[in-house]
């Protein structure tokens, strides 16, 4: 079991008052808070290590390079990649998806098809629209049902030998649905399509095993898993990363440059042009070590408890409407109250110190499906407590009585 009080002591930001009330931070789906080990590692980097990597022969450059490459190894082990050079540092999920989509835009042709799902974040929709517009390929969408699950029979119908790539999220940020990605990946491979998994919302809650999943690409952001913004990972199978053209040109990604022809560096450097966010990359490794020291099994079990507790409490409220009621769910609850605008509720409970997200959560097609402007989304992390959920319930009751 988790010692929540000692975990909470690791997160300085949680111990403050907002509008005169103790902060209850339930916007973990947007970004996570950072533990002291992460904050101290950022400071240590700039106080003791800062230098550019892979370049100088001087001592600090070597120390920074070693720390950066050590972080790559931590990520490799964490996601169980087969090879170190299959782990590419990026600035986040959005960058990783754009990198892959840009590569595919040069490899797709008319008549080819790309499949996304109705449950995607905009960052796993728009880059594929770009790729299809540029290449003449067609974008297809796996539909969702009322419970916020993908309709797998429809997916079966969409898959043909024209399908070149399937891009779906592991966990929906707007609804919390955990998608059956093993099945999605296996079926796509049967028709010869590659699969990109958007793991942004999964990595804070579970430890992905990319070899076991057999996905071709897995992308995520560091900032949702206790690491700084500006850190992120693109995992790709070696064969795909070799096939994919480089995304950005510049320093670090070349083997040899002449005005006639440039040859590219090998993996992973082919996709790491320019000076990266060195500190964020190094500290991503620190954050992953921190999460593993707590243990993902513990995190999952505890967050499930929070989800169950909050769902039961919310169910008692009059006029509540839940969005996303799949049995396979992460600790994310999207809801509204009959007749009340989510923004109004969000604004009132903010005055009471409760931070939730209101709006479309960068997933407008889902809102369109339910014919709503947005939802109230409470997303829980392992550092949250049942007492905090009780405080949210009190605040919601107050909001409801004020607004009706
Ligand atoms: C947050 C999120 C993204 C975008 O991540 P960035 O860090 O903003 O690049 C993409 N997909 C999902 C499912 C997300 O939750």
From TrEMBL:
Keywords: Pyridoxal phosphate, Transferase. CDD domains: SufS_like. Its cofactor is pyridoxal 5'-phosphate. Residues 24-391 form the Aminotransferase class V domain. It catalyses: (sulfur carrier)-H + L-cysteine = (sulfur carrier)-SH + L-alanine. InterPro entries: Aminotrans_V_dom, Aminotrans_V_PyrdxlP_BS, Cys_dSase_SufS, Cysteine_dSase, PyrdxlP-dep_Trfase, PyrdxlP-dep_Trfase_major, PyrdxlP-dep_Trfase_small. Its EC number is 2.8.1.7. It is an enzyme of class 2 (transferase). Pfam families: Aminotran_5. GO terms for molecular function: cysteine desulfurase activity. It comes from the Bacteria. Belongs to the class-V pyridoxal-phosphate-dependent aminotransferase family. Csd subfamily. Catalyzes the removal of elemental sulfur and selenium atoms from L-cysteine, L-cystine, L-selenocysteine, and L-selenocystine to produce L-alanine. PANTHER family: CYSTEINE DESULFURASE, CYSTEINE DESULFURASE 1, CHLOROPLASTIC. This is Cysteine desulfurase.
């Amino acid at each position: 079991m988790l010692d929540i009080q000692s975990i909470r002591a690791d997160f300085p930001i949680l111990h403050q008052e907002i509008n005169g009330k103790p902060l209850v931070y339930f916007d973990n789906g947007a970004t996570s808070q950072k533990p002291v080990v992460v904050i101290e590692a950022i400071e240590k980097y700039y106080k003791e290590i800062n230098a550019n990597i892979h370049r100088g022969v001087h001592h600090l450059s070597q120390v920074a390079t070693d720390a950066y490459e050590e972080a790559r190894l931590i990520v490799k082990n964490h996601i169980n990649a087969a090879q170190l050079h299959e782990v590419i540092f990026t600035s986040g999920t959005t960058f990783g998806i754009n990198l892959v989509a840009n590569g595919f835009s040069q490899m797709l042709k008319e008549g080819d098809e790309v499949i996304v799902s109705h449950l995607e974040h905009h960052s796993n929709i728009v880059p594929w629209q770009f790729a299809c517009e540029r290449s003449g390929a067609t974008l297809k969408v796996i539909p969702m049902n009322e419970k916020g699950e993908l309709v797998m029979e429809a997916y079966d119908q969409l898959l043909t030998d024209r399908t070149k790539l399937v891009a779906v999220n592991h966990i929906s940020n707007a609804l919390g649905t955990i998608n059956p990605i093993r099945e999605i990946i296996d079926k796509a491979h049967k028709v010869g399509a590659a699969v990109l998994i958007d793991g942004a919302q999964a990595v804070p809650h579970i430890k992905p095993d990319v070899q076991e999943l057999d996905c071709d690409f897995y992308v995520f952001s560091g900032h949702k898993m206790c690491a700084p913004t500006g850190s992120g990972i693109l995992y790709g199978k070696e064969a795909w990363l070799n096939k994919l053209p480089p995304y950005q040109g510049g320093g670090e990604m070349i083997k040899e440059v002449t005005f006639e022809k440039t040859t590219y560096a090998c993996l992973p450097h082919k996709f790491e042009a320019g000076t990266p966010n060195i500190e964020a990359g190094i500290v991503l490794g620190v954050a992953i070590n921190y999460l593993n020291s707590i243990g993902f099994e513990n995190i999952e079990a505890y967050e499930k408890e929070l989800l169950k507790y909050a769902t039961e409490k919310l169910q008692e409220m009059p006029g509540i409407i839940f969005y996303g009621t799949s049995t396979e769910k992460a600790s994310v609850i999207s809801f509204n109250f009959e007749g009340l605008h989510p923004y109004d509720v969000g604004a009132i409970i903010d005055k009471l110190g409760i931070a939730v997200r209101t709006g479309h959560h960068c997933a407008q097609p889902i809102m369109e499906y339910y014919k709503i402007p947005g939802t109230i989304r409470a997303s829980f992390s392992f550092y949250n407590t049942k007492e905090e959920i009780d405080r949210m319930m009190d605040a919601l009751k107050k909001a409801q009585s004020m607004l009706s």
